Amino acid sequence: MHLTLRELQLMVLDKRSLAICVTAVLICTIAAPFGTGATPVPIRAVYWSLCIFSASVMSSAIITSAHRSQALDFLPIWAKSPVGALAFALVYAGVLVALTRLFFGNRPSIPGYVELFFYSAPIAVAVAVIVDLFRADEALSEAPTASPSDRFFKRLKPALGRDLICLSMQDHYVEVKTKLGAQLVLMRFSDALEELTDQPGWRIHRSHWVAEDGVADIRREGGKTFIVTTDDSELPVSRTYLSALRNDGVIKRFS
User: Fold this and answer.
1) Residues 120 and 240 both lie in one domain
2) What pLDDT tens digit does each residue of the chain (255 aa) get?
3) For the chain, what is the domain count?
4) Domain containing residue 166
5) pTM recorded for the entire structure
6) Which of 103, 149, 161, 237 has the fewest beta carbons closer than 10 A?
7) Residue 229 belongs to a domain with what CATH number?
8) DSSP string, 55-115
9) Are residues 28 and 154 in the same domain?
């Protein structure tokens, strides 16, 4: 259920999320809602920046964790985002209380934890549902692509091209190597292989896939088999997948 530091960095640096957060900070700094207009503009800007950017990171992390949590597998997929949003609101209300008291002190007009929770919970749930709907629309718009691999290659930098060498699982990421370079892609290894069903190649290990044009040689050592790729990497071949290489004549070709 945990998120890696790299995943959190991707959430923070996402261009669309950054644009939304910056716009929200500008609007709140100028409009000065909830009685914040009495404070100087620079202090107001810092306050709303901390509030909005912390909300963005925390909500993404908590809602993503809710989707991955095995404890919530009894829920339908559409219910996980609202549940995660409620969990976020419980935590974020405490953050808002701390930030508000830090910037404005214990004024009588400052709302307390319960009041802030009831303010933030409906908004958090509504935003989570809207985001899910947008993602569903994006998935539908991607569905009619020419081939399964088109969706995969959209995840890569255009400079890497489409001439694959191999894929390797790295924690929550897939390391993709092409003839022009390499890139880490945040996705499951099994999902990557599903999107590459029209690409000639073989899964050679639970953590490795090699393209047909990526095989430069086959090396054996101590009863183990290794594929040498065109970029001079060595990938282990497990016994589970060795038969597929034999059946396709790959082993014989390099014998």
Assistant:
1) no
2) 455 555 556 556 667 778 888 998 999 899 888 777 888 999 999 999 999 989 988 888 888 888 777 788 788 878 888 998 999 999 999 998 888 888 887 665 566 788 888 888 888 888 888 877 776 665 555 555 467 788 899 889 989 999 999 999 988 899 999 999 999 999 999 999 999 999 999 999 999 999 999 999 999 888 899 999 999 999 999 988 998 898 888 888 887
3) 2
4) 149-253
5) 0.52
6) 161
7) 2.40.50.1020
8) HHHHHHHHHHHHHH-GGGTTS-HHHHHHHHHHHHHHHHHHHHHHHHHHHH-S-TTS--HHH
9) no
